[in-house]
């Protein structure tokens, strides 16, 4: 089960079992001041509910270690091609004449999906990642693809890298300036962390890729 923490305002923690698209979710409302004893009781209650991951952590915590926060990186990797295009357009660069750099330490299924999606949509792709020779040969033969050189107008960074127009997709919870993820589906309480909740729903199969909306400047982008 997943859990998340929200301000409660009372003297004691309160617990509420919620469901979002059929997924059980534990809401923990915290008092204004948490004592070490209350922290210990909360941690025991989480174990009793078999909470394996949390959507967020309290800002102040003086107790045993809490279950780890779930990652949102896979969500961002799924929207990475669209994110690159939106980032180009935000800079008034036509993707048809643009260069995108793909940066990673290792080749992966995510990197391959991003590359295949971008090939027909941008002019040039710079590959700062070790790509299997067989794949490059296949893409050159079937799609006439040849990697570019230099740095791109934007860089999708799946590993840490210093680039002028880097889009950081390597942290477990990427924070992409100017962009966020949302959905049109019901997602429960307003103070529930949106992107971690989307990641949990996506991982459990309750949301599809088509349900994830890439947003910029507060507006939904389709």
List the helices and strands and how they pair.
Elements: E1 2-7, E2 14-20, E3 23-30, H1 36-48, E4 53-54, H2 73-78, H3 80-90, E5 99-103, H4 109-118, E6 124-128, H5 133-143, E7 154-157, E8 166-168, E9 179-182, H6 194-203, E10 213-216, E11 219-221
The major sheet is characterized as: 4 strands, mixed
Query: Residue ranges: pLDDT <50 for 5 or more in a row?
Result: 218-222
Strand content: 15-25%
Please, how many helices?
6
Span from first to last CA? 31 Å
Question: Overall mean pLDDT score?
Answer: 94
Counting helices, strands and paired strands, the structural category is alpha/beta
How helix-rich are the residues, as a percent range? 25-40%
Q: Give the beta-strand count.
A: 11
Walkthrough of the structure:
The chain has 222 residues and is of the alpha/beta class. The chain folds into three domains: 2-54, no CATH class; 74-168; 181-221, no CATH class. Helices cover 27% and strands 23% of the residues. It contains six helices and eleven strands. The protein has helices at 36-48, 73-78, 80-90, 109-118, 133-143, 194-203, and strands at 2-7, 14-20, 23-30, 53-54, 99-103, 124-128, 154-157, 166-168, 179-182, 213-216, 219-221. The strands form three sheets. Strands 2-3-1-4 form a four-stranded mixed sheet, with no helix packed on it. A four-stranded parallel sheet has the order 6-5-7-8, covered by helices on one side. Helix 4 links the parallel strand 5 and strand 6 (124-128). Residues 218-222 have low confidence and may be disordered.
């Amino acid at each position: 089960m997943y859990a998340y923490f929200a301000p409660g305002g009372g003297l004691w923690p309160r617990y509420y079992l919620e469901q979002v698209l059929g997924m059980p979710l534990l809401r923990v409302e915290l008092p204004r001041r948490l004592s070490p004893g209350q922290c210990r009781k909360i941690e025991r209650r989480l174990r009793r509910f078999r909470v394996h991951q949390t959507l967020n952590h309290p800002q102040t915590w003086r107790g045993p270690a809490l279950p780890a926060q779930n990652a949102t990186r896979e969500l961002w990797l799924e929207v990475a091609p669209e994110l690159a295009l939106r980032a180009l357009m935000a800079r008034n660069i036509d993707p048809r004449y643009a260069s995108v750099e793909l940066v990673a330490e290792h080749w992966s299924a995510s990197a391959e999906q991003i590359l295949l999606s971008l090939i027909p949509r941008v002019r040039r792709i710079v590959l700062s990642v070790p790509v299997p020779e067989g794949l490059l040969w296949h893409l050159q033969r079937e799609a006439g693809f040849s990697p570019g050189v230099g740095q791109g107008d934007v860089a999708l960074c799946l590993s840490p890298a210093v680039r002028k127009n880097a889009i950081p997709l390597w942290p477990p919870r990427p924070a992409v300036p100017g962009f966020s993820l949302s959905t049109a589906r019901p997602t429960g309480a307003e103070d529930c962390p949106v992107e971690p909740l989307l990641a949990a729903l996506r991982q459990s199969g309750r949301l599809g890729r088509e349900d994830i909306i890439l947003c910029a400047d507060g507006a939904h982008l389709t």
